[in-house]
Specification:
The structure holds two protein chains of two kinds. Helices cover 0% and strands 53% of the residues of chain A. Chain A has strands spanning 4-5, 10-14, 19-25, 32-38, 45-51, 56-59, 62-67, 72-77, 86-93, 103-104, 108-113. In chain A, the strands form two sheets. In chain A, strands 2, 4, 5, 9, 10 and 11 form a six-stranded mixed sheet that branches. Chain B has strands at residues 4-7, 10-13, 19-25, 32-38, 44-51, 57-58, 67-73, 76-81, 90-97, 103-105, 109-113. Chain B is globular. Classes of the chains: A mainly beta, B mainly beta. The interface between A and B is medium-sized, with 23 and 27 residues.
Chain lengths: 114, 114
């Protein structure tokens, strides 16, 4: 039962433009959300997180928006760079306490073209 | 930052043999370790959670006698795939929880059973 859903398997964006990656979740107990970037045959690299008490968190070119009523979050990357090309995973947890395992989406493969 | 070293990165084994995957925390103590499995184009699915010195907690559908997890020390957790079969071929990855609330991931192990 997939509780975290990334419905777009792939996204192609031109360099310099904005990349918007979407994520939906079904479990209302989720309270903490994270985005990871992953290259093939490597472990995920943490990008940014957001707690449910916030609706926005920004870190450099990365911004995560959370709409708790819609159970939806999105990652915005602006400006997009070719080095951003990777698979992006959305993950959720019932708590920011890292004693809980993460629930991952299937990922969105982002391609940033020059 | 906190690093988890996972070995081997890639292994090919014959059907019926066992394979051990190690995850070592290099500069911190990993009280809790999560083991995930990722099939192609799928999400990282939690297999089990292990706490140092305790028996691992397995997710529904994951055979504990087939996937043996040992977390005998704060710096080492191992996953042994026993009597491996081709359907066990997958990408296995460990993740340790950090005291500051984050997670760090190993680089993953690509297991191919022939």
């Amino acid at each position: 039962d997939q509780q975290v859903k990334q419905n777009s398997p792939s996204l192609s964006v031109q360099e310099g433009r904005i990349s918007i990656l979407n994520c939906d979740y079904t479990n209302s107990m989720f309270d903490y959300f994270l985005w990871y970037k992953k290259y093939p045959a490597e472990g995920p690299t943490f990008l940014i997180s957001i707690s449910s008490i916030k609706d926005k968190n920004e870190d450099g070119r990365f911004t995560v928006f959370l709409n708790k009523s819609a159970k939806h979050l999105s990652l915005h990357i602006v400006p997009s760079q070719p080095g951003d090309s990777a698979v992006y995973f959305c993950a959720a947890s019932p708590n920011s306490n890292s004693g809980y395992a993460l629930n991952f989406g299937k990922g969105t493969s982002l391609l940033v073209t020059p | 930052g906190a690093v988890v070293s996972q070995h081997p990165s890639r292994v090919i084994c014959k059907s019926g043999t066992s394979v051990k995957i190690e995850c070592r925390s290099l500069d911190f103590q990993a009280t809790t370790m999560f083991w995930y499995r990722q099939f192609p184009k799928q999400s990282l699915m939690l297999m089990a959670t292990s706490n140092e010195g305790s028996k691992a907690t397995y997710e529904q559908g994951v055979e504990k006698d087939k996937f043996l997890i040992n977390h005998a020390s704060l710096t080492l957790s191992t996953l042994t795939v026993t009597s491996a079969h081709p359907e066990d071929s997958s990408f296995y990855i460990c993740s340790a929880s950090l005291q500051d609330g984050g997670y760090t991931f190993g680089s993953g192990t690509r297991l191919t059973v022939v």
